[in-house]
Amino acid sequence: MKVYVCYDHDGFWMGGVSVVLAENEDDARQQLDAALVAACLAPHKDHPYDLHELDSTQPQACILFNGDY
To answer: Phi, psi at residue 66, to the nearest 5°?
Structure first.
């Protein structure tokens, strides 16, 4: 499985931040879109977002949102 992060999808008051585990980017986008729609948020086709694959072969920390606008 691959690890993808997204920090610019639709959100209620500001952009959302999510982590997705998936086989590939297409699967990750489908999973995230389903989760967004279930949460009453816009999917990729209505609010385009970027997915970024993390290197899951090495230990690391990734700050997804530091509070800075």
So the answer is: -105, 5
